[in-house]
Design goal:
Strand order of the largest sheet: 1-2-3
Oligomer: single chain
Number of helices: 3
Largest sheet: 3 strands, parallel
Shape: globular
Structural class: alpha/beta
Number of strands: 3
Order of helices and strands: HEHEHE
Strand content: 15-25%
Radius of gyration: 13 Å
Helix content: 25-40%
Amino acid sequence: MKSFNKSILKTLLTNPNPIILDIGSYDGKDSLEFLDIFKNATIFAFEADERSINLFKENVKNKPITLVPVAISDTNGR
């Protein structure tokens, strides 16, 4: 799978303070990249897997990223 260069988003988004939803954030590395590109972004990271949540917390630590420990889907339920 080819990697997506997230820095291109800076040329596409005119708002220097975007709200970013990182759905399926896994270990938080994408959220950290978004924060590096947009210093004043509001970032919500969604992750439901407890194992990934622990990785996320280890990687993100005290960065201004809000972890939302739920899954996103088109249906309600487990």
